[in-house]
Amino acid sequence: MIFDPLWLVFAIPGLLLGIWAQVKLSHAYGKYSKVPVESGMTGAEAARRILNDAGLSNVPVEEIPGHLSDHYDPVKRALFLSSENFSGRTVAAVGVAAHESGHALQHQAAYGMFNFRMAIVPVTQFASMAYMGIFFAGFIFQSIFRQCIDIAIVMFAVMTLFQLVTLPVEFDASRRAKEQLFRLGLVHEDERAGVSKVLDAAALTYVAALVSSVMQLLYLLAIRGRR
Ligand SMILES: [Zn+2]
User: Fold this and answer.
1) Cα(167) to centroid of ligand 1, in Å?
2) pLDDT tens per residue, range 137-146
3) Which parts of 106-147 are beta strand (E)?
4) How far apart are CA 153 and CA 7, in angstroms?
5) How many CA atoms lie within 13 A of 185 on its CB side?
6) Among 18, 64, 197, 213, which is most exposed with the fewest C-beta within 10 angstroms?
7) At a CB cut-off of 8 Å and minimum separation 6, what does 158 contact?
8) Three-state DSSP class for 1?
């Protein structure tokens, strides 16, 4: 298979948006991870407060290695914070910790989009592993090209749907995070903008991932039509 220039046309917008989102995130995070939070709380302490207040004292807050590796694990029902955010007493650390707590709150509230996203995780994982193999099988065995491309398109559509569902889940987690941070007095009025900037920049990376997926899906549809 020779390199397809059409692929570049479809890949470039998502790639550029992705780079821009990463630059924006590292700028916002870099800035606000140097701004101490007035409450003097660490990310872990802020998360603990939010979780306890919601009656989720059984959800542990643990430290994990890596940069911005923070996440809520719905299977383990546990919150994992990167060292920087776990022990950081900064606007960025508290903001990220609150966002991850927001996912735990979604889980507790059985928020529809959160449940739907969780339900399609296994099929998405399978699709992301299998689709490349099927795609290339189509190029090697030209007689079954059409069938392979069709299956690859369905698999890629599932992956794109996952990215699409991720958006409301992420925006809602940030909304819940900000609500709790201000209600519990964990961040003050003048720190609101900083929290929003970090969380909005993080959300933008998910928008970029969706755009990339949609463009790649369109590319698959384009080569299907070309044959
Ligand atoms: Zn999130």
Assistant:
1) 9
2) 888 888 888 8
3) none
4) 15
5) 1
6) 64
7) 120, 123, 124, 127
8) coil
Q: What span, in angstroms and rounded, lies between the C-alpha atoms of 136 and 22? A: 30
How many whole angstroms from 100 Cα to the centroid of ligand 1? Answer: 6
Q: pTM of the full predicted structure?
A: 0.91
Q: Can you read off the two tokens belonging to residue 17?
A: 């948006």
- Residue 72 Cα to ligand 1 midpoint, Å, equals 8
Cα 7 to chain centroid distance, Å, stands at: 25
Kindly report, residue by residue over 162-190, the tens digit of the pLDDT. 999 999 999 999 999 999 999 999 999 99
Instruction: Compute the distance from residue 170 Cα to the ligand 1 centre, in Å.
Output: 5
Catalytic residue numbers?
100
> Are the C-beta atoms of 97 and 70 separated by less than 8 Å?
yes
> Which are the contacts of 221, defined by CB distance < 8 A and separation ≥ 6?
153
Q: Please give the Cα distance from 100 to 204 (Å, whole number).
A: 16
The confidence band for 227, taking pLDDT boundaries of 50, 70 and 90, is low
Rounded to the nearest angstrom, the distance between the alpha carbon of 115 and the centre of ligand 1 is: 14
Residue type, 153: I
In tens, the pLDDT along 61-119 reads 999 999 999 999 999 999 999 999 999 999 999 999 999 999 999 999 999 999 999 99
